[in-house]
Specification:
Largest sheet: none
Number of helices: 4
Order of helices and strands: HHHH
Helix content: 55-70%
Distance between the termini: 63 Å
Shape: rod-shaped
Radius of gyration: 29 Å
């Protein structure tokens, strides 16, 4: 079996056209298709898409204060100051 490090160096040294030709030859010889890797590449490209803007404002509706109404209002006010 060929030395894997040497084989790796040879593959890395290939130009893009040579690498594409190698892929095509391996596909023909092994009877496989490299198209299965396309969804993975598309997912990686999708990860580079701009992210959805993070929500920074929220509306809070307190339905029940319980026995500590004043304390609850103070804590909500304190949370607003942190933002």
């Amino acid at each position: 079996m060929a030395d894997l490090v040497q084989l790796e160096e040879q593959i890395v040294a290939l130009s893009l056209l040579e690498a594409a030709a190698l892929v095509k030859k391996l596909e023909e010889r092994l009877g496989v298709s490299a198209a299965a890797a396309a969804p993975v590449a598309a997912a990686a490209a999708g990860a580079a898409a701009p992210a959805v803007e993070e929500q920074t404002e929220f509306q809070v509706i307190l339905k029940d204060f319980g026995a500590n109404k004043i304390s609850t209002i103070r804590r909500c006010a304190r949370l607003r100051r942190w933002a």
